[in-house]
Each structure stands twice: as C-alpha cells, then as structure tokens.
Design goal:
The chain is mainly α. The chain contains twelve helices and five strands. It has a three-stranded parallel β-sheet. It is globular.
C-alpha cells in the first residue's frame, strides 16, 4: 500500500529525516530505505539503527517519529493511476475480479493514512484487509515470507465458499501489486504473478538487478540474521510442491519466467495482458 497506492513512503522519509537532522545525522539514503520497505518493524528497526547510530532505542525513535507521522499522514494522496485501477477492477470487470489488501502497515498508522481516503479504500471490504499486525500472521513471518499473501487469498476464498457460486482461487491465478523488493519476493514465494511498481529512487537503487527482483531472487530469504522473518522452506509454495509431488505454476522463480513485470506507473494499466476483461459500457 505505502508507495504503491498512496504517497506515504515519501512521508515516511520526511518524518525520518526530521528526527535524523535533529541529531545531526544525514538524510536517509535509498540504499538503507530499500532495506526497510515492506519489512516487519523489528527487522526494519535493527537495520535502521545499525546505520543511523542514534542515541536511543528503536521504540524511542518510533515514538518521536510517530508525532510527525500523526501530523503528516492525513495528507496522503493516491499515486497516479491508482484510483482508476482500483475502481475499474472493482466495478467494471467481467467476470468480477476479487480483491484483497495485504500491507505491512499496522492498524493505527493505516487509520491515519486512509481515513480521509474512504472512497479509494472502499473497494477493499473489512474482511479482505490484512494489516501488518494482523494476529493471524505468525510472529516473524512478515515479508519476504509469503504468509501475508496466503492469508489475503484465504480471506477471498472464505467469501467464495460462503457464496457457493464459483470455485476457489489458487495462488497461480493471483496477481500481486507491489512497490517493495521484500513484497515482490513474498509474492513470488507464494507462487503468484507479480507487478512491481517501485519508487523511482528504489528503481535506481536496483538498476541492473531488475530481473532478479522480479524473479524473487534478491536473496532476502537467505539473510541469516532474518531467519525469524522468513517462512521455512516447507511453508512456502516450493515446499508445497515438494510435499505434493505436483508442479505448481509460478513456483520456479527463474529469471525471465514471465511471472513478474516492472511497471513504472499504474496509469493506463494493461488489463488485457493479464487476462482481465474490462466492461467498456
């Protein structure tokens, strides 16, 4: 959501820099910010504090940062193309597209960022909103682990089962929209097709490695210091493939395998490329 649907990533940077400058530190560089995006709080905190060397604990930093965030988050705005994309997917597709929101943003911050954007987020029903502090996500299983996307799909299939009018959706039928590198890896590990729409600063940071990102091969799951953050191999789509003895589309995660695409904007989204039929009436 942050940096994909709304411009809150830039606000995060502004608030962080305010605190850094108060302590005589330089502005947050993209090579550090890239490591924080999409990460659960404890991991992001460790990475940030190791770089920033602030005279405080991470909870103390968050408390100071939160004061600035509460002031600035209510000014968030949709990024280009987002409103048209969401409302088209929700209102004008045949057959209808099922949608869920999966964000690392926690409940309180989510409220600050989105309360004034009710129309935009109305396309996601409450039961299909999975936030970063959702108790159904096991501790230590944030992105790049696939759990958040498996849970988002479960919320969709729960509704489909209640309706009893169509078959449940499987991971290889899903399309994940992400701006962060850990998020892309999470989507790929879930066996889902991905669209990467990064901030220009992040794209520049990964220049020359775009194909690795789209394949989910940036090595985030192999970070030995983050072992509690990633799912065990037997819990992701590749583990399911080994246990079942059946090939699952999208599980291979290879360069140029056709399961990931880079889009620099969500404006004029190519629905037909993804088999999405838009009712032109």
């Amino acid at each position: 959501m942050d940096g994909l649907l709304i411009d809150s990533e830039d606000i995060y940077t502004i608030c962080t820099n305010i605190v850094l400058h108060e302590y005589g530190k330089p502005s947050l560089p993209w090579h550090i910010k890239a490591q924080l995006q999409g990460r659960p709080g404890p991991v992001a905190g460790r990475i940030f504090l190791e770089w920033a060397q602030l005279p405080m604990t991470y909870p103390e930093f968050l408390a100071i940062q939160a004061v600035h965030q509460r002031e600035k988050f209510p000014s968030t705005r949709p990024l280009p193309g987002v409103s048209d994309l969401l409302h088209t997917l929700h209102d004008s597709t045949s057959p209808p597209v099922h949608m869920a929101l999966a964000t690392s943003s926690q409940k309180n911050n989510f409220k600050y960022k989105t309360d004034h954007l009710g129309d935009l987020f109305s396309v996601f029903s409450d039961e299909r909103r999975v936030l970063g502090d959702d108790p159904r996500i096991p501790e230590g299983k944030g992105k790049p682990a696939p759990d958040i996307y498996f849970l988002a799909l479960r919320t969709i299939n729960d509704g489909i089962r209640r309706e009893g009018k169509e078959k449940e959706i499987v991971p290889e039928e899903c399309l994940v929209f992400e701006d962060s590198v850990p998020g892309i890896e999470a989507g790929r590990r879930a066996g889902m097709r991905v669209v990467w729409c990064p901030h220009p600063g992040l794209l520049e940071e990964y220049k020359g490695r775009e194909k690795e990102v789209l394949a989910g091969l940036t090595g985030l799951e192999e970070d030995t210091e983050d072992q509690q953050v990633v799912a065990a191999a037997d819990e992701d789509i590749e583990g399911k493939e080994r246990r079942s003895g059946q090939k699952i589309a999208g599980a291979t995660r290879k360069i140029d395998d056709g399961w990931g695409e880079l889009l620099e904007t969500l404006e004029n989204f190519p629905y037909e490329r993804y088999g999405i039929v838009v009712d032109k009436r």
